[in-house]
Structures are given as structure tokens and as C-alpha cells.
Specification:
The structure holds two protein chains of two kinds. By secondary structure, chain A is mainly beta. Chain A has no helices and ten strands. In chain A, a hairpin with a 4-residue loop joins strand 7 and strand 8. In chain B, strands 2, 4, 5, 6, 9, 10 and 11 form a seven-stranded mixed beta sheet that branches. In chain B, strands 1-3-8-7 form a four-stranded antiparallel beta sheet, with no helix packed on it. Chain B is globular. The chains are: A mainly beta, B mainly beta. At the A-B interface, strand 4 and strand 5 of A face strand 5, strand 6, strand 9 and strand 10 of B.
């Protein structure tokens, strides 16, 4: 199992701007997932990208994966107040436990 | 489809007591994972159960244990509670197969006094 490391730790942007957060990991993976957590609540699965995929979209979310650099990025376009949350990446392998890092705290300013 | 449910939602216990938390996964899911979340340590993996067997385990002392029933419902138990066990305990269910995502419950907020 391995833990992803999100960067930056915290990010504040104006509503309407795009938010980008990054994730790095250490060993090869089968897939990588991104989750969101609103304050004090359970995590919500956002998107899963497989190791043989380079980019994936879901609504205003765009995720990229570069297995050669062992990194992924999550882009949220046209941010909204409701996007204020912590975002976690989870690099994963088959049957292996999913470990979460410290996350990126995103704050959308009005 | 009903989501993951956790009971109770809030709990206050005293040091030295034990506690049992319950998690009902989404129907059809065979995997249940438990996490502890604290401000200082973040989200830490406790264990995962798949088809009634513990498949993965985190680095927690033996006071933390769990089990899964034939209907995939899971319980975790913490014995001899310590102040440091105060946390949000999250459970997540999934298909448990390759490329599966996890669906989280709202959590149980445990306070140990």
C-alpha cells in the first residue's frame, strides 16, 4: 500500500477561478482516486483514473495521470463556494488498502 | 440505492470503557474499510474486511478490532478507551474488486472524556 502526498496543503482562490492540486506517489499503481471531504463529514468519491489512462473528465473536474512521474493533478474549473472542502488523492493497487494523505484544503473566496 | 449508514452518529464515553461502532454498507458491496480521522494525524486506515475476512490492516494497537457479518455489515470495537481515541470514525464500502471506488458513511464522532 502507499500514501499519496497532496500539494499544496492549502489553497485559497476567488470564486470563478480554476483550482489545481497535485498528488505524488512512490511506487507503481493500478489506479488513482480523488475524494472530497466537506468539513467533518464523510468523503465523497470524485473520480477514478486507471494506470493506462492519461486524462479523465467529470463535469467541472479534470484529472491527469503521469505514471512516469508518479503524479496526478486535479483541476476544478469555474470554482464555486460549494467546492470549499479538503481534497484527497488515493493511489491504489488491486486488493490493497487505500491510504489517504493529509489532503489539500481548498477555500473558495466570494 | 441507500448509502452507507453508521450508528451511532455521536458518542461520548469515559476513559477505560469500550465502544462498538456499526456500519451498514451499500447493498451488494462486499468490502468495508474503517478509518480514524483526527486533526493531528489526518485520515488513518484501520482495517478492511472483504467477505467476512480481514483483508488489510493498518498500524493500530490490538485494542482496535473489527468484524464483518455475512450480510456485509461491519462492526468495530475499541476496548479500554483512551483520550487519544477521540476522533471521527469513518467507514467506507465498495465492491472490493479491481478498480473499485469507496463510498463513505457520515462517520461516528467519538469523544472520550
Amino acid at each position: 500500500s502507499q500514501q499519496g502526498e497532496e500539494d499544496p496543503q492549502a489553497l485559497s482562490i476567488q470564486e470563478g477561478e480554476n483550482a489545481t492540486m497535485n498528488c505524488s506517489y512512490k511506487t507503481s499503481i493500478n489506479n488513482l482516486q480523488w475524494y472530497r471531504q466537506n468539513s467533518g463529514r464523510g468523503l465523497v468519491h470524485l473520480i477514478l483514473i486507471r494506470s493506462n489512462e492519461r486524462e479523465k473528465h467529470s463535469g467541472r473536474l479534470r484529472v491527469t495521470l503521469d505514471t512516469s512521474k508518479k503524479s496526478s493533478s486535479l483541476l476544478i474549473t469555474a470554482s464555486r463556494a460549494a467546492d470549499t472542502a479538503s481534497y484527497f488523492c488515493a493511489p491504489a493497487n488491486r486488493d490493497d488498502k487505500i491510504i489517504f494523505g493529509k489532503g489539500t484544503r481548498l477555500h473558495i473566496l466570494p | 440505492k441507500a448509502g452507507v449508514t453508521q450508528t451511532p452518529r455521536y458518542l461520548i464515553k469515559t476513559r477505560g470503557q469500550q465502544v462498538t461502532l456499526s456500519c451498514s454498507p451499500i447493498s451488494g458491496h462486499r468490502s468495508v474499510s474503517w478509518y480514524q480521522q483526527t486533526p493531528g494525524q489526518g485520515l488513518q486506515f484501520l482495517f478492511e474486511y472483504f467477505s467476512e475476512t480481514q483483508r488489510n490492516k493498518g498500524n493500530f494497537p490490538g485494542r482496535f478490532s473489527g468484524r464483518q457479518f455475512s450480510n456485509s455489515r461491519s462492526e468495530m470495537n475499541v476496548s479500554t478507551l483512551e483520550l487519544g481515541d477521540s476522533a471521527l470514525y469513518l467507514c467506507a464500502s465498495g465492491m472490493g474488486l479491481e478498480f473499485y471506488e469507496q463510498y463513505f458513511g457520515p462517520g461516528t464522532r467519538l469523544t472520550v472524556t
